[in-house]
Amino acid sequence: MINQEADQMYSVTSLTRKLKNLVEMKFRFVKVEGEISNLKRPFSGHSYFTLKDDGAQLKGVLFKGQSRYLEKPLEDGQQVICHGRISVYEPRGDYQLVVDSVDFQGSGMLQLQFEKLKKQLQGEGLFAQERKRSLPRFPREIVLFTSPSGAAVHDFLKIWRKRHFPTAVSIYPVPVQGKEAAAAIVKALDILNVVRPHTDIVVLCRGGGSLEDLWPFNEEILARAIAQSTIPVVSAIGHEVDFTISDFCADLRAPTPTAAAEMIIPDGIALQETVGRMRRILTRTVFGILEDYQYRINQNRRLLGDMDFLFTNYSLRLDHASLKLVTLIKKVISNRSAICDEFYAKLHHNSPVAKVQLQEQHLHFAAAKLSYLFRTLVADKEAALGRQASLLDAVSPLATMSRGYSITNKIDTKSGKKTLIRNSGQLKIDDRLEIRFHRGKVECGVTHVTEE
Given CB 3.0 to 4.6 Å as the disulfide criterion, which of 88, 121, 335, 370 pairs with 20? Predict the structure, then answer.
């Protein structure tokens, strides 16, 4: 039987159809638990998705007619139990779950992680408005953290070109999807803060997607890196309905990359029109003020008449008063100078310099006498000290010991107490002795005792 099946020739269609019949007969009705991801709804109204767990994934389809019986619409990240049957889609040779009904078990693990981290970081104050930095009104340099091939960067650059404002825009290529994306963005943000700390704004730019696709922007390491960045950060992730942890930590949240460009890049054309309008208003205002003052000057000039004669008379009087004042000042200075000379002569006559010199001589003589008396006193004291030292050396036991004598102490082995030995009657066999010589000492034991 096995050989017959091995020899039998199948076409792709016939083998696929046979497998389809086999699978559908074996699994007429099943219940499958998992998490919904990669949900897509084309114009047909059918829902295509992947049902996955930690070890595997299964493609699923919910037709439009069955969708009206659901409690709520399907969303990425939902943990569900799907009821249906296993079928094989022959054109692609894929097996899939054709879903009849869905039991919802909550928002899924990713959504739970999102809410948990959001609550934690909010409690730490990372979302606080007072922590957020203000963005410059006229940024000179903007850096985009994005995928160069994505549509989001092209939407941003399109608005940037339309604005006609001299803001430099640099693109820092980073992955915006996948497990390594968050760490790569954190590393790029750290490098930019060190290498180009004067950058005005950093924009995290990415188009829309499922919760899984946007998950790197819900990572804790990225949230803390955004909060610690010295450069202001703008989060432009997904569509208007998409919210990520990065949106809450960033200094500004933009609903889309296009909106981010419109919010942070000034409209150069509008600014030029505003400046031109203000210039015209300022010019009219200044000329109006000048004309008003010129009119007032002319009116006052007509009222005052010719003032040249009056000014000439006062000028002559001023010159006369100036000459008189200069003469008077010179006279006062001469008188004061004569008085100063008189006081200087008296001061020189009674100068204390001679008295100071005489006192200096007395001081030098007294210092020399004091030094002589001090040296004499020290010599007398040194001589007296030498005599006392000689007497002390004569009666010192050290002098006696230097002639060959020694001092013997008995050592109590329990208490360590030392007793001076004056005769052999104080000793017995095995006693411990300490013998001190003129130089050094020894410890020994008693082996024999003789009384004299």
Answer: 88
| Residues paired with 274 in a beta bridge | none
| Coil/strand/helix, residue 75 | coil
Q: What is the pLDDT of residues 285-331, one digit of tens each?
A: 999 999 999 888 888 877 776 666 667 777 888 888 888 999 999 99
Transcribe 430-444 into DSSP letters: T-EEEEE-SS-EEEE
Closest CA to 139 of 273, 42, 261, 43: 261
Strand stretches in 122-221, DSSP E: 141-146, 168-173, 201-206
Q: Are 58 and 33 in contact (CB under 8 A)?
A: no
Residue 165 near residue 266, CB atoms below 8 Å = yes
Distances (CA, A) of 22 to 2, 16, 19, 82, 323: 18, 10, 5, 21, 131
Token pair for 15: 């083998």
* Token digits of residue 39: 């949900």
Please name the helix (run of DSSP H) or strand (run of DSSP E) that holds residue 183, with its range, or none: helix 181-195
- pLDDT tens-place string over residues 60-107: 999 888 887 777 788 888 888 888 888 887 777 778 888 888 877 654
| Region of residue 154 (left: phi > 0; alpha: psi -120 to 50; beta: else) | alpha
Residue type at 81 in one-letter notation: I
Q: Is the CB of residue 237 less than 8 Å from the CB of residue 214? A: yes
DSSP SS3 for 152: helix
Residue-range domains of the chain with CATH: 8-106 (2.40.50.140), 111-266 (3.40.50.261), 396-452 (no CATH)
Q: What is the DSSP annotation of 18-70?
A: HHHHHHHHH-SSEEEEEEEEEEE--TT--EEEEEE-SS-EEEEEE-HHHHTTS
Single-letter residue type at 249: C
CB atoms within 10 A of CB 226: 26
Exposure pattern of 13-49 as b/e (b: 16+ CB <10 Å)? eeebeeebeeeeeeeeeeebebbbbbbeeeeeeebeb
Its pTM surpasses 0.90:
no
Amino acid letter for position 432: R
